């Protein structure tokens, strides 16, 4: 990996939002001669759950690794819990939770034993109102691993290992939690339990969470804010509804007149349907209004920014 400063010193620019848990300004990353991030800007606040969406290779893991302090950026200003992750110390690290890929090298440890052992690192970083680490028993229960607490890690299934990864990420009661595709390999029940856990962490402990996923339903369910990364930049941010409003044609109206069927994309479905009935009234035999899903919106945003082309979510009125 070749990493170099592209311009200026990132430490000279003070963060514009000192209250932010994460403040990223003009973040750039170049691998060799390939620019992956062209100037990423976003902030996250206490207790917020942010989901980072983007196609394969967009740079999501790169961003997360830079924010975790595991990868040096090429340029830009990054503040995480008030510090630059590139130079922050152990006390900072104790406030940050990271869910890495599975711990393949601890197979002979037992679940409870490993969590207890890792938790001891955080004892020195306990604060009034924020006891660290989590009680091992509570933690095992929170991630649904009670039946396997005394089992060797090598005997866990893929999904159970992933639950353990999550437990390892939160054992130090982090103020900020990074989750890179945390539910890959989860069955539907484990996925729902995990979503409940993230909601509990953000609602009860005010934990800020930044996660990546390719599961759009998960993004919609979990995120206070969804960030879409495309073309090396954050091209849109907001709730699923707010994102939909950034793309033309947020709803589709399908209707039939006799044997003919029609489809029209519109930002004002109610007004369109009123007009339709005013014109054709009793001739309309069937009608359906479908709002753009997050998938429609996401694909339109990515397509637009990857091709530099127009917004093609808007469908023309068509006859079969
Ligand atoms: N160490 C590296 N050296 C060179 N190129 C790299 C390195 N790490 C990542 N890349 C490249 O940078 C780009 C972004 O990779 P990254 O893993 O951040 O994407 P991602 O959005 O997390 O992708 P995915 O959804 O597939 O996990 C990719 O084109 C990848 O090939």
From TrEMBL:
Keyword vocabulary terms for this entry: Antibiotic resistance, ATP-binding, Nucleotide-binding, Transport
SUPFAM superfamilies: P-loop containing nucleoside triphosphate hydrolases
GO biological process, one term: response to antibiotic
Example GO molecular function: ATP binding
CDD domains in alphabetical order: ABC_DR_subfamily_A (cd03230)
Membrane topology: Peripheral membrane protein
Predominant location category: membrane
Chain ranges of the ABC transporter domain: 22-256
PANTHER family on file: ABC TRANSPORTER ATP-BINDING PROTEIN
Name this polypeptide is given: ABC-2 type transport system ATP-binding protein
Originating species: Amycolatopsis cihanbeyliensis
